[in-house]
Amino acid sequence: MPEGPSILHLRNTLLPFKGKVVKQAGGYGPMPAEWINGKKLLDICTWGKHLLFVFSNGSVRVHLMLFGEIRINERKTVNRSFFLEFAKGEINGYVVKAEKLKGTPEEVYDWRTDILHKDFDAAHVKLLLKKEAGKTIDDVLMDQNVFTGVGNKIRNEALYRAGIHPLSITGKIPAAKITMLIKEAVAYVKIFYKQLETKGVNDNFSVYKQAYAADGSEVTMQILPRTKRKIYFSEHKQQLFQ
DNA sequence: GTGAATGTTAACAG
DNA sequence: CCTGTTAACATTCA
Description:
The protein is α+β, with helices and mostly antiparallel strands. The chain has helices at about 5-15, 105-110, 120-130, 135-140, 150-160, 175-200, and strands at about 20-25, 45, 50-55, 60-65, 70, 80-85, 90-95, 95-100, 220-225, 230-235. It folds into 2 domains: about 5-110, N-terminal domain of MutM-like DNA repair proteins (Alpha-Beta Barrel); about 110-235, Helicase, Ruva Protein, domain 3 (Orthogonal Bundle). It is built from 6 helices and 10 strands. Strand 9 (about 220-225) and strand 10 form a beta hairpin. The longest helix is centred in the last third of the chain and has 25 residues, at about 175-200. The protein is elongated and about 55 Å long. The structure holds a DNA duplex.
């Protein structure tokens, strides 16, 4: 479930709990509980794939990792790794990682890199890219401190749309192409999000898990040596810069 | 039973 | 100390 747009969509479904008082909080793992009990849920916000529950005396950061799941007013049989129970209704997290944020969200997070946020700043991201000049672009795209909220699907689609080969060296990609990549990443994230909001699922893919790309060219699948993640791309449409 | 999947990070090697 | 690699973790579905 969790790539940036999915988390933002999830946040929207949780909004009815905003302003409500937590009767009982808990979970296993490092999930802190006592300090939340009796507190009002002031806000729910996101930073990329991070879901934040804000209280007057601290915030809880929830990360769904690969298998995490949040259910509303619904329980599964297995233990909850995170939960907030209200007078009416409850939020239940399974296999999620929850912990107390060290500081306020504003202190901890920089929203200029969050591809889904209104404060996203393309110029700032370009600046950060200079430090990553030696790395391949596929790696940098998944770096949450540079492209916050981008996951494997978005990475594949953004590279295809920008016509950049995933193994291109970041520093060798022409500035205009980088600009295009950022623009396409933002554009694709919006499609992803809109699909979730309207249909509940995103099935809009030009290359990801496709045999043929949107333009009809053949798609190559490669397993990245380090991360073991799969990348899909079109040799025909995506130029390799090195 | 097997394999695969939207992710991160602690631990280790060099 | 820094850099890169590996392993580990949790779950559901086909």
